[in-house]
């Protein structure tokens, strides 16, 4: 009895072992089948849908907004600024009185010049009378000489005195002309003590104060600036790597920090032929943003364009983010640049991977038109709505970092 129980238990254990072994074989087969079965490549792809949009190939630069027409009003005479008739922001018209400088010194010079001219005029009248008397004396001596009753020495003396008198008249006339010239300059200097607006516009700065002493002995000090703010010029600094892509008349647009949602459009007016000259420094070096003499300097060229400012939204010295449009395509089929693999870049040919109708990944050649940093125009090879691969997920399921081509 004991022997039969022992045999039954042994058989039961062998059956359990056979069942476990069979289960292990089944699981191993399933695992092997899972490993041997190919993974779905579309499941690890980052997919984008071909759409429509606008693509612009632009050159980006920074610029400063300045008035198209302005003038710095300076002082041409020295003295105390006795009256200042304007304030910053005031509108002035050409010919309006802006300021007055103490005219006492210039007025004294004018009075002295007028007195000197009066003295010379009286002297000229006296010398002309002497000249007339000398001419009469010479005529009498000439008559006596012809009749044979006069002396030769008396005739020569009369002729000399006539010539001296005539020369003195000419010298005084020259002195009067010189005095008139000096008087004219002094009167002009007197006129400069009253400063008038040379143009119509807005007074955008005043650098002088009433009561201030003005010294114009070496250079004309700037008192104020008048600008016409109805039209502005944008001075744009373009790097030497991009300036060759610009051309006169090309379209552009710009934005400002103060109006982030506003876009102004214009056309390029002019590209200056040389970069700005760097300011002189004490050690003979050059600035980092000029024409550059050092290896580390950045060479920037100036591109100019004008923009109307009838509403006064643009102000002097505003910073403009300028976009020069080299090429543009609107309402066109577009794809991300990351989806393109170059095939023949000269001909604009690229390859893209797309999800076929059966879910399989296909490779197709496309022709690319305008492109920017992120998107490219598709001229042929793709239609709107197709799904393309722009990248592949990593092993942990996270999308990879896609680097856009610049």
TrEMBL record:
Localization per Swiss-Prot or TrEMBL: Cell envelope
Record-stated family: Belongs to the membrane fusion protein (MFP) (TC 8.A.1) family.
Organism listed in the record: Azospirillum brasilense
Any coiled-coil regions, as ranges: 117-175
NCBIfam families on file: RND_mfp (TIGR01730)
Main location: other
Biased composition (Gly residues): 282-291
Keyword Transport assigned: yes
PANTHER family registered for this protein in UniProt: MULTIDRUG RESISTANCE PROTEIN MDTA, SLR1207 PROTEIN
Span list, region Disordered: 272-291
Protein name as it appears in the record: Efflux RND transporter periplasmic adaptor subunit
Domain Multidrug resistance protein MdtA-like C-terminal permuted SH3: 332-391
Domain Multidrug resistance protein MdtA-like barrel-sandwich hybrid: 71-223
